Amino acid sequence: MTPERRPLIAGNWKMHFGGAAGVELAQAVAQLAPALARVDLVIAPPFTALAACAHECEGRRVQVAGQNLHPGDAGAFTGEISAPMLIDAGCRWVILGHSERRQLFGEADAFVAEKVASALRAGLTPIVCVGETLDERTGGRTLEVVSRQLVAFLDVIAAAQAPVAIAYEPVWAIGTDKNAGPAEAQEVHAAIRRHLGGKSAALASRTRILYGGSVKPDNARDLLAATDVDGALVGGASLDAASFGAIAGAAEALAAR
Ligand code: 13P
User: Which residues span the domain enclosing 114?
Assistant: First the structure.
């Protein structure tokens, strides 16, 4: 593992903990950080709690991510949030192209690529999500779908010299308690890294590829032990500091070997 591929454990809080409870959770996560020196920790609270959580985490080795952005910097886009606004709120990261955005809010590959470009311009590190639905998996189309989603933003990330993370999140594994097995995850992660390598060897060696989809304390170790799994994007289990800490602890123990 290259130094750029330090384990990254990110918590996607989705539409939960948007106020004072979010700040409490951020504080609890920050208290875990000293025992997790080999792991990068990121939390993605809802927009309404971003600035307060970022303030809570300042100087405490936990960084904060937005869950989405609009690709424009400013303008008449009621209800939207831009990359410079996320920076102002104290974010260093942003989750983009999550399957819930793609499926429930109609985000197409090209729109996701615009968002990735906007994030990188502003100095945010994007965590770009890709992943197939159950129908696509059973139809044997997993690698085709993931590579289509990846190709849409590949030129953007290859042109930027800045780090980017990619999260492989099979849609059928999100919130279902059905995770991909380590071998299934590894197959897709390796394919993603091969794709990156087709653009540049440096891009392949510096890009962290996270697994997401029902990552829990009891399956984290096996998933994180796979060669091309550089971390996890955790949904439900990130809403409890002890579970999130146990997942990050599995990454820490593997990195210490
Ligand atoms: P769960 O961990 O709840 O399955 O959610 C995964 C996810 O969507 C993270 O972005």
Answer: 8-255
